[in-house]
């Protein structure tokens, strides 16, 4: 049997963290070679591994520049013959990294993200099992054309749907409404759905345009909204209440913001789509759309911010091109 080639790169995260002498807590210390050495069952796979330590960062400190560097490395691996790529990072921002990379991943071969909820020094550490499963998924031809996926707890999730839904549970990663793309059982990869069309944007020459994400809350102050047109932001995403609503006070601050930048409404609920024509009161979706607010549909607030950022970078902020791209890609992400 011909061996497949899989590249494994590490950015850090709980899966790489150990305790240092006389220090409380754990921090990222392990590299790719040390991680792979701890995984039982790899010798049974018909796979050659290329290993590379990209960084040793807690996931909350990952920047766009780190992800673009990881993307460049991952593309080089596919171009030099890898069947798939595994990228290891911390779970706190893993859902955002997965979606961000999915916006730029042009290959049929899979890019698989994984991590761990328990550090290697804990009983029942899940890192080795997650890494083994991620390598199995990266090897599988069944996962081709699905773009970037997240593999955790023997489940395979699409980048557009996956979210971290619990602070510490091993089953923290879920795909609300749509469920996982597939799972791993007895070393085999099971896939439930055909590939979905994906947005694939050009890698930008600049990333200076910034998008602000605000979650609206009960009896919300409006000073930040009022100041926003004078601040250095080029887009606004609002995580609205319910199916995409804000208070009357917030609504009244939006017209000057909309004049300056695209404003997208999402839902803060964590599951389900914004609505388009259910509620007509002031601050609800009918009223907001008449003002020029764009409804995001199923795309969550954090991923909407990333999509809008990528579009701004690709169009260099050209308002007409931004709005055309938003219409195209938001339709794509809501074509179910």
From TrEMBL:
This is Asparaginase. Belongs to the asparaginase 1 family. Keywords: Hydrolase. Gene3D superfamilies: 3.40.50.40, L-asparaginase, N-terminal domain. Pfam families: Asparaginase (PF00710), Asparaginase_C (PF17763). Substrate binds at residues 59, 91-92. PROSITE patterns: ASN_GLN_ASE_3. InterPro entries: AsnASE_II (IPR004550), Asp/glu_Ase-like_sf (IPR036152), Asparaginase/glutaminase-like (IPR006034), Asparaginase_C (IPR040919), L-asparaginase_C (IPR027473), L-asparaginase_N (IPR027474), L-asparaginase_N_sf (IPR037152). The keyword Hydrolase applies. PANTHER family: 60 KDA LYSOPHOSPHOLIPASE (PTHR11707:SF28), L-ASPARAGINASE (PTHR11707). One of its GO terms (molecular function) is asparaginase activity. One of its GO terms (biological process) is asparagine metabolic process. Residues 210-324 form the Asparaginase/glutaminase C-terminal domain. Residues 6-195 form the L-asparaginase N-terminal domain. Coiled coil: none annotated. The active site is at residue 14. SUPFAM superfamilies: Glutaminase/Asparaginase (SSF53774).
């Amino acid at each position: 049997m011909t061996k497949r080639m899989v590249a494994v790169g590490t950015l850090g995260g709980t899966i790489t963290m150990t305790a240092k002498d006389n220090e409380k807590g754990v921090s990222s210390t392990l590299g790719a070679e040390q991680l792979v050495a701890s995984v039982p069952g790899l010798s049974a796979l018909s796979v050659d591994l290329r290993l590379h330590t990209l960084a040793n960062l807690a996931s909350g400190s990952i920047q766009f520049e780190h992800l673009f560097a990881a993307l460049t490395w991952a593309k080089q691996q596919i171009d030099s013959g890898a069947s798939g790529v595994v990228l290891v990072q911390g779970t706190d921002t893993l859902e955002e990294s997965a979606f961000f990379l999915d916006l730029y991943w042009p290959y049929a071969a899979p890019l698989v993200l994984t991590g761990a909820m328990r550090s290697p020094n804990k009983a029942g550490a899940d890192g080795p099992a997650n890494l083994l499963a991620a390598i199995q998924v990266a090897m599988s031809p069944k996962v081709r054309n699905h773009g970037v996926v997240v593999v955790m707890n023997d489940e395979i999730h699409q980048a557009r749907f996956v979210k971290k839904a619990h602070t510490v549970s091993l089953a923290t990663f879920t795909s609300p409404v749509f469920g996982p793309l597939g799972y791993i059982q007895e070393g085999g990869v099971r896939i439930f759905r055909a590939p979905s069309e994906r947005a694939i944007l050009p890698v930008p020459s600049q990333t200076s345009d910034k998008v602000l994400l605000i979650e609206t809350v009960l009896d919300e102050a409006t000073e930040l909204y009022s100041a926003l047109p004078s601040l250095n932001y080029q887009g606004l995403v609002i995580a609205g209440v319910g199916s995409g609503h804000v208070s009357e006070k917030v609504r009244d601050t939006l017209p000057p913001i909309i004049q300056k930048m695209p404003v997208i409404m999402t839902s803060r609920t964590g599951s389900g789509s914004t609505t388009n024509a259910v509620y007509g009161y002031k601050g609800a979706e009918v009223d907001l759309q008449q003002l020029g607010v764009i409804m995001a549909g199923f795309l969550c607030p954090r991923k909407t911010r990333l999509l809008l950022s990528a579009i701004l970078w690709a169009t260099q902020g050209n308002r007409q091109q931004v709005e055309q791209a938003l219409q195209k890609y938001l339709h794509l992400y809501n074509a179910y």
